[in-house]
Amino acid sequence: MSIEQTLREAEAERARAWQGLRDEVSSLRQDLTDRPIPQRLRERAIDKMVDAIDGAGTMVRDNAPALGTTLALLAGWSLRRPLLRAAGWLWERRPFAKR
Predict the structure, then answer these.
(1) Helix axes 80-92, 64-78, angle to 10 degrees
(2) Which domain of life is it from (predicted)?
(3) CA pair distance 70, 77, nearest whole angstrom
């Protein structure tokens, strides 16, 4: 193979590469025209939120007894003073209490 042939083949390869790059850029521009970046970001955020909500729903379904127990314990701990006062009041007013 002569140097001229090698140079022509390299030039043709370079021209094909440039054309491929131009096609990619043109395709990217058209794609961005069809769906701009803000729209893509909005759609992705919505998809992520839907996935998170689905995941939370699955987690609640799978762990409902544990979550219910935890919430009941938290409510009991938060309301412990009023509950203890009410229990004391009821204990003092029980029938047949020794006074």
Answers:
(1) 70
(2) Bacteria
(3) 10
Residue 99 pLDDT greater than 60, yes or no: no
pLDDT value of residue 60? 87
pLDDT in tens, 4-52: 999 999 999 999 999 999 999 999 999 999 999 999 999 999 999 999 9
- CA–CA distances in Å: residue 93 to residues 86, 87, 89: 11, 10, 6
- Measured at the CA of 54, the angle between CA 71 and CA 36, to 5 degrees, comes to 135
Provide the 3-class DSSP secondary structure of residue 35.
coil
**Residue 67 CB partners (closer than 8 Å, separation 6+):** 60
One-letter identity of residue 1: M
Angle of CA points 97, 98, 99, to nearest 5° = 110
Residue with token string 């127990």:
69
